[in-house]
Amino acid sequence: MCGIVGYVGKRDCADVLLDGLSRLEYRGYDSAGIAVFENDEIKVAKSKGRLADLAEKMRREGKPQGCAGIGHTRWATHGEPSDRNSHPHSGSRVTLVHNGIIENYKRLKDFLLSVGRTFASDTDTEVVAQLIDYYYEENHGNPVDAIVKAMKELEGSYALGVIFADFPDMVYALRKESPLIVGIGEDESFIASDVTAILQYTRNYYLLEPGEIAVLTRRGAKVYDLHYQQIEKELKTADWDVSAAEKGGYPHFMIKEIHEQPTAVKTTITPRITDGMPDLSECGITPEKLAAFRRIHVVACGTAMHAGMVGKYVIEKLAKVEVNVDIASEFRYREPLVGEGDLVIIISQSGETADSLAALRLAKELGAKTLAIVNAKGSSIAREADMLIYTHAGPEIAVASTKAYMVQIAVMYLFAFELALAKGAIDEAECRRLTALLQETPAQIEAILEQKDHAAQIANTLITADSLLYIGRGLDYALSMEGSLKLKEISYIHSESYAAGELKHGTISLITENMPVIAVATQQKLFDKTISNIKEVKARGAKVVLVSRDSYVPEKDVADFKFGLPDFEDLLMPMLAVVPLQLIAYYTAVLKGTDVDKPRNLAKSVTVE
Ligand code: M6R
């Protein structure tokens, strides 16, 4: 959701900005723009549409030439996607790019209009540019002072890259809520919404904190507080290299990331297993702490919330602790019954999802302990939670989450095993057995990936459908939710997930030969019941795709297509069964010719509520 890149150095700035922005494309956007100092003057180029449209426009009209500037990909909030609403936006001496939302922009705009300022766009961002410009004029040209004064007025979330016409070859950066990092190279410095944008130039960076202002020059960056006191920052080194953020020969990031799942699981669980037992002590989680929790709430959005659904089934079954799963945007506004003795688990790939972050803060206010399961290092959710388990999936670029989900559920298993042991609900031998099985999942996933052509064949039978149903019971139902989201978000085919036993209470009336059903049936205890539900939809004409165990050979009237899975522990089947669901969604989207990695209207990191 909006990407920011800034650069000061010796390279062709426009090229660096475009390259960096292309690596942030996954965040989702509908217009783009750059501003570059050309012979000490700020030159702006911007365009509605993709970066290719901006590049084409610059080919026609001339590319700004210079070695310092800022760039942006915009995901529209205030004002339609258009050239005039694209960033950068300017006052008379100030030009900036912005990620986030200024909540009090209307009041500020009224003030600025009242002092004679005029506006060229419908955005909240232009208000920020004019406000900084107003203070800059008022204080006769002190950039940091103007920024600090504006910051005191701004409400909402923002990451800003700012340049001043009077200070060529300098870039200013600041943030509140929305993420921003400052990259340090040799004789060059950068700002970026995340480190993937600059990995090919440097892996060294500072995490900018709210209330800090970075001043970048070719010689590096200095960071100040609101009183203009310099702050000593810890230089971090990204442990991802540039290949982690490239397609590596795959046609899309999504299929690359699906294939990375076995490694991601291994990298995530291995450091958390000691002598065959789960060990989350490095994450601040001890058996004593676990034993004290009386109730758990898992709060997250989208795919991360679906990982929480799997966690609920597993924790309740193994540890006998009540688990509520909440959508973060609902949790934060419904006065949840959460308090001391409760553990609130926030799951987030990006660690910056606005609703999940707000839910975390609310949980802390209410006196609960919080645990974050997060992929992005140093993100806001990671920093604010009481306890933290990083998933080690590496950068996930495709908007549709796959490997992040896989490692989120892997962590939920480890957590559930350790919790169950701490609560005395399972004994050490059982905990050891389950942990060993979890360690086997990467090899199982590898084997399933070898059947990807079969998933493509199944996908080929789905592309003409307007709508699909995913059904399952128990853990298979939790998984169906994720399968359905995956399909609809990238193929644009409508789909819903249903608890198979709930169909007869209304939804079965939708079933016709034009409504394919993807049935997940891996749970042995519920198997016969799910098969009965499948027969009911089959009898009403539905084409059925069955995702089930190899050992089950369907009768003639059960399934039109089957994707087989190895026989494995019921409890761990979601780690295997999600793979065909991801593959079917992927190939359906490919066959339909959609923009698989960057589906329309979607952003990877949803930093506004
Ligand atoms: O970064 P987060 O995990 O907090 O993001 C939450 C959702 O926006 C995300 O899981 C979304 O549903 C997926 N990208 C869908 O594939």
Structural commentary:
The structure is a single chain. The chain is an alpha/beta fold. The protein folds into three domains: 3-99 and 159-246, Glutamine Phosphoribosylpyrophosphate, subunit 1, domain 1 (4-Layer Sandwich); 268-441, Glucose-6-phosphate isomerase like protein, domain 1 (Rossmann fold, 3-Layer(aba) Sandwich); 452-592, Glucose-6-phosphate isomerase like protein, domain 1 (Rossmann fold, 3-Layer(aba) Sandwich), CATH 3.40.50.10490. It contains 18 helices and 27 strands. The strands form five sheets. It has an eight-stranded antiparallel β-sheet with strand order 3-2-4-1-10-9-11-15, covered by helices on one side. α7 (261-269) runs antiparallel to α14, α14 packs parallel to α18 (573-592) and α16 packs parallel to α18 (573-592). The protein is globular. The N and C termini lie close together (11 Å). Bound molecules: 5-amino-5-deoxy-1-O-phosphono-D-mannitol. The site of 5-amino-5-deoxy-1-O-phosphono-D-mannitol has 15 residues, from α9.
Spatial strand sequence of the major β-sheet: 3-2-4-1-10-9-11-15
What structural category arises from helix and sheet content?
A: alpha/beta
Q: Under the CATH scheme, which architecture of the largest domain would be assigned?
A: 4-Layer Sandwich
- Kindly report the CATH topology of the largest domain: Glutamine Phosphoribosylpyrophosphate, subunit 1, domain 1
Keywords:
Glutamine Phosphoribosylpyrophosphate, subunit 1, domain 1; eight-stranded antiparallel beta sheet; Rossmann fold; seven-stranded antiparallel beta sheet
